[in-house]
Design brief:
The chain is an alpha+beta fold and about 130 residues long. It is about 35% helix and about 15% strand. It contains 4 helices and 3 strands.
Length: about 130
């Protein structure tokens, strides 16, 4: 039970991501490695929180590392007996550019539509029972 004035954090898979499309295709083909999971958009999460009396106060998103592209490439290469490292080699100049771009994007709401997972922080009103 969350006390009045407490902060709730809701963290879920993001609805509008290529990962979600791939997941649903693999689920339909009975090839998905994990159980079912439901994904949401930021708007949906905020709507649900308001419906239950919470005040959304922030949001965030996070990319997957290594990227979906690298993970897919690694799996394909594994099938033909080529072993790629768990994490790709970091090219210092490219890594710095990528990090700078990510930090600039992170401050914008649209950034969450590029991430694998999203979260909303919400406050329970002080006057709630």
């Amino acid at each position: 039970m969350l006390k009045p004035g407490g902060i709730a954090i809701i963290d879920v898979p993001q609805r509008w991501h290529i990962y979600t499309l791939i997941k649903h295709i693999l689920i339909a083909l009975n090839k998905w490695f994990a159980g079912w999971e439901t994904e949401f958009s930021l708007g949906q999460l905020e709507k649900y929180l308001k419906k239950f009396g919470f005040e959304p106060i922030g949001y965030y998103g996070d990319w997957m590392y290594p990227s979906l592209f690298y993970r897919t490439l690694r799996e394909v290469m594994w099938k033909i007996s080529v072993r790629l490292p768990l994490y790709p080699f970091k090219v210092p100049v490219l890594w710095k550019i990528r990090r700078t771009l990510r930090e600039k994007l992170r401050r914008k709401r649209i950034f969450c539509y590029t991430t694998l997972s999203i979260g909303v922080l919400a406050k329970k009103p002080e006057d709630s029972i």
